[in-house]
Specification:
Elements (H helix, E strand, L loop, with lengths): L1 E5 L2 E3 L5 E8 L6 E8 L6 E6 L5 E3 L7 E6 L4 E6 L8 E9 L11 E2 L3 E5 L2
Parallel strand pairs: 2-11
Antiparallel strand pairs: 1-3, 3-8, 4-5, 4-9, 5-6, 7-8, 9-10, 9-11
């Protein structure tokens, strides 16, 4: 049972990236999925999550720029990041928890290893 992130890279300010969180060993349908990030020297922060009922919850710093979506046919959750800023630079982690609620949990059971996103000119 694992989740694996992909899609990170180097992008210029104002650009876009789409991260993928692919699940293996389980079906994501009844799972809450969250994206976290951790910048150098800073604590890990939750960016946004989607509940098992696909209700999104956003951190204030990314609202209007980032969106989360789930493709059940591919067992994948995506993080679409637009209008990227240098302060979005961080390692982004995907986390999952079996949690059949309309809201997101406080803790997660399955974590990926992260993918680096660097926003720089």
């Amino acid at each position: 049972v694992q989740v694996v992130e992909s899609g990170g890279g180097l992008v210029q300010p104002g650009g876009s990236l789409r991260l993928s969180c692919i699940a293996s060993g389980f079906v994501l349908d009844d799972y809450a999925i969250s994206w976290f990030r951790q910048a150098p020297g800073k604590e890990r922060e939750e960016v946004l999550c989607t509940s098992a009922y696909d209700t999104p919850y956003y951190a204030g710093s990314v609202k209007g720029r980032f969106t989360i979506s789930r493709d059940k046919t591919k067992n994948t959750v995506y993080l679409q990041m637009n209008s990227l800023k240098p302060e979005d630079t961080a390692v982004y982690y995907c986390a999952a928890k079996y949690y059949v609620q309309s809201y997101c949990p406080e803790e997660y059971d399955h974590w990926g290893r992260g993918t680096q996103v660097t926003v720089s000119s």
